[in-house]
């Protein structure tokens, strides 16, 4: 369990007690102001909330969030797409300046949105006038809405991936070349998407997926912030409680910890952070391992990049994933942290465009396979 200083916890409590929601039930006001635990049956809600610090995936450290980087240009206004009768998917579509060669689909982590790529997007556009960039918010995140009746099913790991694949079918058709780019838990989603697409292609091809780019991806076994997984499962069960106070308090506690202690953006509703926990809790690693084997057997090209000092996962996790997938290109950074799409955006954009150009070449003779080397990057082919 990660330890948090008493000062930090007191600051979080002050931020909650200073202005609790006016519509919060009296039980919540009492707990926040007196710091008493909330008991539902034999479960202590406040204790579960504090244990969330050890299970929040894909988050940004306090040190990393303070880095001063130039503000990227604003992204275009989002568009919304109806998928089935119960989902509306929010996305941004940055069309290629010239004829489109392929589309890069940007898949965020948990919690996250396509804004996680805001530093990488303009550099990718500079690198290639022929790439279309499609940023999609997974069901439950950002402005992607899900009907109450199938909420937990649609925001689960495979449920969200199937909705996203159906959205890509509408946005890209069956002939457009597509590369999936996933960060953190978005790497899992990219694997889910590619594997589900392989299964669908037996009867009705959905999307032409030419390859995957995985950045600091979660792997084929739980990384350190997910262990022990029982804590994640406990919170997931509590989120589905029939007790109204529990269903109300726990999402607020999740948001408070993500935004006050881990310093995530606070403009999102509590449901955004609930979706992040559900995504982690519903990950079936045995299914994921099967999908990885299927993608390797199908020779789906993969570029894998990670940092040796990732604060949320040991570097053996993405290294083992790259080996299992047979990644044709592996880029290992030093000092990049978990959000390398932000801290190493320039180097990554060059690597990504060169690799995707190479894979998407119609005539292999046009591709010389040149690899780029940087002083602050460790680049090596692992056995």
Automatic annotation (TrEMBL):
Note down the stretches annotated as region Disordered: 61-80
Q: One GO MF term, please? A: catalytic activity
Q: Known Pfam families for this protein?
A: Abhydrolase_1
Q: Where is the AB hydrolase-1 domain?
A: 103-343
This protein is called: AB hydrolase-1 domain-containing protein
């Amino acid at each position: 369990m990660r330890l948090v200083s008493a000062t930090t916890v007191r600051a979080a409590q002050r931020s909650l007690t200073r202005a609790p929601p006016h519509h919060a039930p009296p039980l919540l006001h009492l707990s926040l102001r007196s710091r008493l635990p909330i008991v539902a049956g034999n479960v202590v809600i406040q204790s579960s909330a504090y244990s969330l610090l050890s299970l929040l995936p894909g988050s940004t450290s306090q040190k990393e969030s303070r880095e001063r980087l130039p503000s990227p240009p604003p992204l275009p206004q989002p568009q919304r797409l109806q998928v089935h009768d119960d989902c509306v998917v929010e996305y941004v579509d940055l069309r290629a300046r010239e004829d489109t060669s392929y589309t890069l689909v940007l898949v965020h982590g948990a919690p996250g949105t396509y804004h996680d790529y805001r530093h990488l997007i303009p550099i990718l556009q500079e690198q290639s006038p022929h790439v279309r960039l499609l940023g999609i918010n997974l069901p439950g995140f950002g402005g992607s809405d899900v009907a109450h009746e199938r909420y937990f099913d649609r925001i689960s790991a495979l449920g969200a991936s199937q909705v996203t694949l159906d959205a890509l079918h509408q946005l890209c058709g069956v002939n457009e070349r597509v590369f999936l780019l996933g960060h953190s838990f978005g790497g899992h989603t990219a694997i889910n998407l590619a594997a589900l697409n392989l299964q669908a292609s037996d009867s009705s091809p959905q999307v032409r997926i030419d390859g995957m780019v995985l950045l600091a991806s979660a792997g084929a076994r739980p990384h350190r912030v997910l262990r022990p997984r029982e804590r994640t499962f406990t919170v997931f069960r509590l989120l589905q409680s029939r007790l109204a106070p529990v269903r109300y308090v726990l999402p607020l506690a999740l948001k408070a910890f993500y935004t006050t202690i881990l310093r995530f953006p606070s403009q999102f509703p509590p449901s955004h952070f609930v979706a992040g926990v559900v995504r982690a809790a519903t990950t079936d690693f045995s299914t994921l391992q099967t999908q990885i084997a299927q993608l390797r057997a199908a020779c789906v090209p993969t570029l894998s990049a990670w940092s040796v000092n990732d604060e949320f996962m040991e570097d053996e996790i993405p290294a083992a994933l790259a080996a299992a997938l047979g990644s044709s290109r592996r880029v290992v950074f030093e000092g990049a942290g978990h959000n390398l799409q932000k801290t190493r955006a320039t180097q990554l954009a060059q690597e990504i465009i060169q690799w995707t150009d190479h894979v998407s070449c119609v005539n292999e003779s046009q591709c010389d396979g040149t690899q780029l080397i940087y002083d602050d990057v460790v680049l090596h082919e692992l056995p």
